[in-house]
């Protein structure tokens, strides 16, 4: 699953790459984004493409907090199918973390794309209404098993053309939308080990994404 990621692009790069017209949140670079935190998302609101923020993790009526939604389940559950048809967003990302076990040791690795300093993760959103009738926007990232055969889920990424369709509210055919979702193999990413400090979600500095040396063999692709 994708349960931690980074967003290190500056705001000018982000708005240019995604055609963002209005920024509704105080933006800053993030090096260790974790579930339940507020995260930047790109939405189409009427004629305007906006940068907003939402809670990362759904809180549907059955009480499960879902930061990821598997591609295969999107068509099976009416709740998710409705979000796919009507409530889609893009979650911008510079890299995502992978946790690898080596014996009794678990280490964090950071996956970045050599040609894409920031890329688009496919997301869906909803509004959670609490007992006091306050609304809280929340989102989930769509994932699938990694295409290189490793037993890991990776976020589904959208290319430039797919982003335009994904954010188009007039497109509601869920089969068409599901066909747009593709998982890039980890072999297309540069995956490198990072400091154990990333395990602490309070750590939010560039050291979280800095490559470090390890004593065991490099992650296999």
Q: How would you describe the overall organization of this protein?
A:
By secondary structure, this protein is α+β, with helices and mostly antiparallel strands. The chain has one domain (5-94, 116-187): Alpha-Beta Complex (hypothetical protein yedk fold), CATH 3.90.1680. 15% of the residues lie in helices and 37% in strands. The chain is built from 5 helices and 14 strands. It has helices at residues 11-18, 71-74, 78-86, 160-166, 174-179; strands spanning 5-7, 22-23, 30-33, 38-45, 48-56, 68-70, 88-93, 95-102, 105-112, 119-129, 135-145, 153-155, 157-158, 190-193. The strands form 2 sheets. Strands 2, 4, 5, 6, 7, 10, 11, 12 and 13 form a 9-stranded mixed sheet that branches. The protein has a 5-stranded antiparallel sheet with strand order 3-1-8-9-14, with no helix packed on it. The chain is globular, with a radius of gyration of 17 Å. The mean pLDDT is 88. Its EC number is 3.4.-.-. It is an enzyme of class 3 (hydrolase). This is Abasic site processing protein. Belongs to the SOS response-associated peptidase family. It comes from Cohnella kolymensis.
What is the number of helical segments per DSSP (H or I, 4+ residues)?
5
Indicate the CATH class.
Alpha Beta
CATH architecture: Alpha-Beta Complex
- Total number of distinct structural domains: 1
Kindly identify the CATH topology. Answer: hypothetical protein yedk fold
Task: Kindly name the structural category.
Answer: alpha+beta
**What's the total count of β strands?**
14
Distance between the termini: 17 Å
Assembly state (oligomeric): single chain
- The low-pLDDT segments are none
Helix and strand string, N-terminal first? Answer: EHEEEEEHHEEEEEEEHHE
Assess the beta-strand content as a share of residues.
35-45%
What sort of overall outline do the alpha carbons produce when their principal axes are compared?
globular
Q: If you average the pLDDT, what whole number results?
A: 88
CATH superfamily: SOS response associated peptidase-like
Keywords: Covalent protein-DNA linkage, DNA damage, DNA-binding, Hydrolase, Lyase, Protease
Family: Belongs to the SOS response-associated peptidase family.
Pfam family, one: SRAP
EC number: 3.4.-.-
């Amino acid at each position: 699953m994708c349960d931690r990621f980074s967003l290190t692009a500056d705001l000018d790069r982000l708005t240019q790459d995604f055609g963002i017209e209005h920024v509704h949140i105080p933006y800053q670079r993030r090096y260790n984004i974790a579930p339940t935190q507020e995260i930047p998302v790109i939405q189409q609101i009427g004629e305007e493409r906006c940068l907003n923020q939402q809670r990362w993790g759904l809180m549907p009526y059955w009480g499960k907090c879902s930061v990821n939604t598997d591609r295969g389940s999107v068509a099976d559950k009416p709740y998710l199918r409705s979000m796919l048809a009507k409530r889609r967003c893009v979650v911008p990302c510079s890299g995502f973390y992978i946790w690898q076990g080596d014996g009794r040791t678990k280490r964090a690795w950071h996956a970045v794309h050599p040609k894409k300093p920031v890329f688009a993760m496919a997301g869906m959103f909803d509004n959670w209404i609490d007992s006091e009738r306050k609304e809280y926007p929340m989102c989930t990232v769509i994932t699938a098993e990694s295409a290189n055969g490793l037993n890991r889920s990776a976020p589904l990424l959208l290319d430039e053309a797919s982003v335009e369709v994904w954010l188009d509210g007039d497109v509601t055919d869920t089969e068409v939308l599901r066909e747009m979702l593709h998982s890039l193999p980890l072999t297309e990413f540069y995956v490198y080990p990072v400091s154990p400090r990333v395990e602490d979600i309070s750590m939010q500095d560039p050291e979280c994404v800095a490559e470090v040396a390890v004593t065991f063999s490099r992650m296999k692709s």
